[in-house]
Design goal:
Helix content is 41%, strand content 21%. The chain has nine helices and twelve strands.
C-alpha cells in the first residue's frame, strides 16, 4: 500500500469525532514545506522532492508523537497544528520544555546521533506532520550546507536555553522562576522594544510545569505583576506592558 501524499492528507476531511487541523498551511499549489523555518528557503522543486521522500502523519489532541527513549529516527515537520516537547518526573508530573507550531520541526537529535529519543512529543491540537526518514534528512544536510548550519545554530540555542534553565532551577526561588519564564516567552513576541503579547494566553499549569512549581505560585506571581502594572491578562493574550522592568527584576535576583 502506497504512502498517502502530503497534499491528500491535508485535503482529507476530518474523521468522525476529529476536529479540523489548525489552519495556516500554504495555499494550494505551493509546496507544503514553504512555511518551514528550516527548509522554507529552498526552491519549490527541491521542496516537492523532499515531500515525496516523506509521509504524512495526523495526530489528535494529547496523542503522543514521540516517546522518550524510543528508537525511531524520523524528523518531523509541522504542516498544521501544534505540539509540545515534554518529559515526566518519576511521580508522573509533566515537565514541559517547549511548544512548537506550524513551520517548526523536531526529532533531529536521534537522526543525527542514532541515540534514543531525548523527550516525549505530544500533539496539543489536531496536527498534520511530514515525517522524513533519517536518511533523507541527512542527505538534505549534505546537499544544502545553509540548512546544516541552521540545524547547528538551533542546537546551540537549545544548549544555551538549557544552561539558563538549569541555573534558574538551581539559584532562583519559585516566584522568580515564573518571572524568568514569562521573560523567555515574551522575548519572541515583542510588539516593540518594551511591550509584548503572549498569545494564546499561557495556562497556569503549563507555566508551572516549565519551572517546577505550582499553579498557585504562578497565579500569585501574575497577580502581583498585574497590580504593579507590568502585565495584563485579556481573554486572548497575556500582555507585558513593561519588559524592561521585568528584565530588571529577573537580572537582580540572578546576580
Amino acid at each position: 500500500m502506497s504512502r498517502p501524499a502530503l497534499q491528500d492528507c491535508l485535503d482529507a476531511p476530518p474523521q468522525h469525532g476529529e476536529r479540523p487541523v489548525a489552519a495556516r498551511a500554504p495555499a494550494r499549489g505551493e509546496p507544503l514545506l514553504t512555511g518551514s523555518k528550516l527548509l522554507g528557503g529552498l526552491d519549490s522543486h527541491t521542496l516537492r522532492g523532499i515531500e515525496r521522500a516523506g509521509s504524512c502523519r495526523r495526530y489528535g489532541p494529547l496523542e503522543h508523537i514521540i516517546d522518550r527513549d524510543g528508537r525511531t529516527t524520523d524528523v518531523f515537520f509541522i504542516v498544521r497544528g501544534q505540539a509540545r516537547i515534554l518529559n515526566y518526573s518519576v511521580t508522573g508530573r509533566e515537565i514541559a520544555f517547549d511548544d512548537l507550531k506550524h513551520g517548526d520541526y523536531f526529532g533531529e537529535l536521534a537522526a543525527l546521533d542514532n541515540g534514543p529519543r531525548s523527550a516525549n512529543v505530544m500533539a496539543i491540537v489536531d496536527t498534520l506532520l511530514l515525517a522524513l526518514p533519517q536518511r533523507a534528512f541527512l542527505q538534505i544536510l549534505e546537499d544544502h550546507p545553509p540548512v546544516a548550519l541552521e540545524v547547528m545554530a538551533r542546537l546551540a540555542r537549545i544548549v544555551r536555553l538549557a544552561d539558563e534553565r538549569i541555573m534558574d532551577l538551581s539559584t532562583l526561588a519559585a516566584h522568580n522562576r515564573v518571572q524568568a519564564e514569562l521573560l523567555r516567552q515574551v522575548r519572541g513576541h515583542r510588539d516593540h522594544a518594551n511591550h509584548g503579547r503572549i498569545s494564546p494566553i499561557p495556562v497556569h499549569s503549563e507555566i508551572a510545569s516549565r519551572v517546577s512549581t505550582t499553579r498557585e505560585t504562578v497565579a500569585r506571581v501574575l497577580n502581583d505583576l498585574a497590580r504593579r502594572g507590568i502585565v495584563e491578562r485579556t481573554k486572548q493574550a497575556l500582555i507585558i506592558h513593561d519588559i524592561a522592568t521585568l528584565e530588571t527584576i529577573v537580572e537582580e535576583v540572578r546576580g
